[in-house]
Task: structure prediction
Amino acid sequence: MKQKKIPMRKCIGCNEMKPKRDLARVVKAPDKKNENGEILEKGGLSLDLSGKMPGRGAYVCKSTQCLEKAVKAKRFERAFQRQIPDEIFDGIKEELKNFE
Result:
């Protein structure tokens, strides 16, 4: 019987390749646009533990240490190509603490 392929993703905190199930996905929701294509509202960031939410995603280990490394090195800003306020990271950190 053929073995099933395990999807691998890279943590942006520690830069290690790990199975997708071992990582948490941080998602930038799609921007809301009007019929002319003008951006009405930018998509927000949220933690996606299921890995199914629509939008651009970046993976981080399910530990607060890797999240703090990624925030300090501004890797989320680079991945999502926009400035991210610290309040959003505080909320994501609380969600990770609740998950652990």
